[in-house]
Amino acid sequence: MKSFIILFGLFAVVAFAEDDKTKLPKFLEGSEAKTVEEFEEILEKSGDLTDKQIDEAVDAWAEKQAAALKAKYIAFKDELKQFEQTGEAAHKAAIEKFSADAKAADEKLSAIANNPAFSAKEKGQKLEDIISKLPKKVQEEIEKAMKEDN
């Protein structure tokens, strides 16, 4: 499900700043501690930024890195695009199987997830608010579809 994949991707990246046990993104593996710390610092400050602002901040950071790291980052972004395309196809397939209530919930969730005006924090709060108010059966239906996409 594209919306969820993008969000979970974003929150997984944000989690790097919050959990030292979280695995580094592939493009940072083998990097110096200072480089990793700079990246984590960007993420620590990303909660109030929109997706575009986060992308711009990380892109600007990547531009200042050594050529090898820049190349890894570009490859990572290409992989992410492919992952998003695969996710979109899976999302469409999941929607076809959804109940009417799950389709309505997905529409609301997708609208929030894809809204470029919301910050990462706002998206997380709004999504959590909607999900928490869904009937248990609809929550389970959506969660099952998300697991099948991964």
TrEMBL record:
<dbReference type="InterPro" id="IPR052823">
    <property type="entry name" value="SXP/RAL-2_related"/>
</dbReference>
<keyword id="KW-0732">Signal</keyword>
<feature type="domain" description="SXP/RAL-2 family protein Ani s 5-like cation-binding">
    <location>
        <begin position="37"/>
        <end position="139"/>
    </location>
</feature>
<dbReference type="Pfam" id="PF02520">
    <property type="entry name" value="ANIS5_cation-bd"/>
</dbReference>
<dbReference type="InterPro" id="IPR003677">
    <property type="entry name" value="ANIS5_cation-bd"/>
</dbReference>
<feature type="signal peptide">
    <location>
        <begin position="1"/>
        <end position="17"/>
    </location>
</feature>
<protein>
    <submittedName>
        <fullName>SXP/RAL-2 family protein Ani s 5-like cation-binding domain-containing protein</fullName>
    </submittedName>
</protein>
